[in-house]
Amino acid sequence: MKTFNTLAELAALAGQEITVTDWYEVTQQHINQFADATGDHQWIHVDAERAKAGPFGTTIAHGYLTLSLLAGFFDRALSVKDVRMGINYGLNKVRFMGPVPSGSRLRVRIALLGSEPIERGLQMAWKCTIEREGQEKPVCVAEPLSRLYL
């Protein structure tokens, strides 16, 4: 966990990589729960037998599951002591560049692109590169926005 005392201390690092998270395993249970929560039960995600004959030889995580993991990665990777609340504000860009087979381990390289003042805080623009263990190419690159309030 990378901890900052103030929001200004974090904002001063614009243009830099802030942290690299620990590895996190994406299990079939995660994939099935995401399918149940979203109603997306496409066979490539939930039917292990059929997926064996598919293009990846196994089930793969939904792209939006991979993207949604960013919230937990941020929660486990960054802390700012003087921030009372943070919210997701949206995304500027998302690209899914590779599959995430069930059982894959992922981590995220988190860089701060910049920030701008908002009432009682800052809006932060990030670049998140989600890597799969053993793969050179990232599986997802996203530019989420968050609002951190003092």
What would you say this structure looks like, in words?
This protein has 150 residues and is α+β, with helices and mostly antiparallel strands. The protein has five helices and eight strands, in the order βαββααααβββββ. It has helices at residues 7-11, 28-38, 43-46, 48-52, 63-77, and strands spanning 2-4, 16-20, 24-25, 78-80, 85-96, 105-118, 121-132, 140-149. The strands form two sheets. Strands 2, 3, 5, 6, 7 and 8 form a six-stranded antiparallel beta sheet that branches. Strands 1-4 form a two-stranded parallel ribbon.
Keywords:
150 residues, 5 helices
Low-confidence stretches: none
Distance between the termini: 20 Å
Q: So how many helices?
A: 5
Query: SS-based structural class?
Result: alpha+beta
Order of helices and strands: EHEEHHHHEEEEE
Share of β-strand residues: 35-45%
Could you tell me the mean pLDDT? Answer: 97
> How would a crystallographer describe the biggest sheet?
6 strands, antiparallel
